[in-house]
């Protein structure tokens, strides 16, 4: 049984979005400083970077070679504003550029809900460096269509990430669909096309027999 003693350390990032977003590194109070495998957590609509706490703490006690970073999006309403998804993807790209000189391992990205859309948008950016990311894990992410289709820009984003010309050739993508207890994102919308990645339902994971709420999956 793990006992969380979280510390969030702000990391200065050179970016045009530095006044809008921030980056924090997660550390347990008992953890010594080291460089391991970098994991970037992106929250969803109105989400917090501190949602990475459960994943990061458990990973620390299971295998302390992971370095967790959370993107602070200031609880932006990304489900209602397509421009926010693009800005967050640009900032995520800047984060990788700032951190990659310290790591020899490829980055792992975990995106909760709309954060998973941001993660996929990353690969469509002209300035993205191929080979920087090795794995994208999305948790209860609506991959098929916008959750709140209130503007045309949101549709454009989904046309990009699900378009025939869009492929993530240098990273594995895994989508975890939550199940019936998730009343915000239906599992069908979390199914990613086989040409883009693989989909698993939460109840298919070994030792997991049930779904959970939308926020609890992160």
TrEMBL record:
GO terms for cellular component: endoplasmic reticulum membrane. Its EC number is 3.1.-.-. It is found in: Endoplasmic reticulum membrane. Residues 36-217 form the GPI inositol-deacylase PGAP1-like alpha/beta domain. GO terms for molecular function: phosphatidylinositol deacylase activity. GO terms for biological process: endoplasmic reticulum to Golgi vesicle-mediated transport; GPI anchor metabolic process; protein transport. Pfam families: PGAP1. Keywords: Endoplasmic reticulum, Hydrolase, Membrane, Protein transport, Transmembrane, Transmembrane helix, Transport. It is a multi-pass membrane protein. The keyword Protein transport applies. Involved in inositol deacylation of GPI-anchored proteins which plays important roles in the quality control and ER-associated degradation of GPI-anchored proteins. Belongs to the GPI inositol-deacylase family. This is GPI inositol-deacylase. It comes from Rozella allomycis (strain CSF55).
């Amino acid at each position: 049984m793990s006992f969380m003693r979280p510390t969030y350390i702000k990391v200065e990032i050179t970016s045009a979005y530095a006044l809008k977003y921030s980056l924090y590194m997660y550390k347990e109070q008992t953890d010594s400083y080291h460089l391991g495998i970098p994991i970037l957590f992106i929250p969803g609509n109105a989400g917090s970077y501190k949602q990475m706490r459960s994943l990061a703490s458990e990973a620390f006690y299971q295998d302390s070679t992971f370095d967790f970073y959370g993107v602070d999006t200031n609880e932006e309403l990304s489900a209602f504003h397509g421009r926010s998804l693009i800005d967050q993807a640009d900032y995520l790209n800047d984060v990788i550029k700032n951190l990659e000189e310290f790591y020899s391992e490829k980055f792992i990205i975990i995106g909760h809900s709309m954060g998973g859309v941001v993660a996929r948008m990353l690969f469509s950016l002209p300035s993205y460096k191929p080979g920087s990311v090795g794995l994208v894990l999305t948790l209860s992410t609506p991959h098929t269509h916008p959750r709140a289709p209130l503007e045309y820009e949101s549709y454009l984003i989904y046309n990009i990430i699900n378009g025939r010309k869009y492929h993530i050739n240098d990273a594995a993508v895994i989508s975890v669909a939550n199940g019936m207890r998730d009343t915000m994102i239906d599992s069908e919308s979390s199914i990613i096309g086989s040409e883009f990645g693989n989909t698993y339902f939460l109840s298919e994971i070994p030792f997991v027999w049930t779904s959970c709420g939308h926020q609890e999956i992160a």
